[in-house]
Amino acid sequence: MRLSLAAFALVLVGSPGYAQEPGNLWEVTTSMEAAGMKMPGSTQQVCAPVSAEGPEAMAAKDDRCEVSDVKRSPGKFSYKVKCPEGSGSGEMTYQGKESYASVVTMTMDGDTMKMSSKGKRIGSCDASQLKKQVAAVEAQGQAAMAQACADVPAQMLPALLTTLNCDAKYKKQLCDRLGTKAGFTDVAARQPTGEAMMDSGTLPEAAKFCGVQPESLRERLCADASKTEDLNFLGAQCPALAQPIAQRECAGRSFSTPPAEKYRDFCNSYARSMMQGSGGDAAGDSPMPTKESVLQEGAKRLKGLFGR
Hints:
The protein is α+β, with helices and mostly antiparallel strands. 44% of the residues lie in helices and 25% in strands.
């Protein structure tokens, strides 16, 4: 999809497609790290032309990204790379002709991710097969990115759509879900964390992203909940409508005289809402996505840039 891992981590992509071109078969182990969290590594085999070496070979595969400031010394390369999604730098060192180590650091939307690779030559191969290998890796990357975008509406994190450069249809899906009681409940439960990615999933920010007024949306959903007798939503999100029901069905109840079964969940939701003090920020059924899960999406995005 963008730069394949075969192209970037190895920096060993020359011009594939030559019939029976002599090549080196490399076993490459790659790991990724973001915000101090290290993602599980992966190992794959890649066939690269014998003559391919250095970061310029990578740049030829994707005109969206530019490699510059290449510096060479015996067995060592350093360089800078700039892509639409972000920019960074890389360094790779060969240990003779049999192994190498590579570290690439990229900054995207204020977040820094590092990809470390180690490769060792394990034999010879036909480098003309590289094009098929790269195409397969890119197809996998595209599928992973598509799935990551498809998951965002359920996570209700608008900033992730921008970070992943998702198709506009996923914004519509997210905003459509915000207009449902389930989606509204998800975001209304969230409190600011100080992190832009996570805070994009709070009610004010999600509503702003979708171009709607939070209270107008709440009023519409509360009116619908009243008509359908959705007591749980009324108890958690609609204090004005819930108050008379709570006074009638919940007030003065105790362990020995609990509310009628129909109203028990409602009374609990209403009580939590009142303890929150806002009448609309009680905990919902779907929790805020964790920072770890968002970092995993970031890792998918970086893999989408550079392959798997």
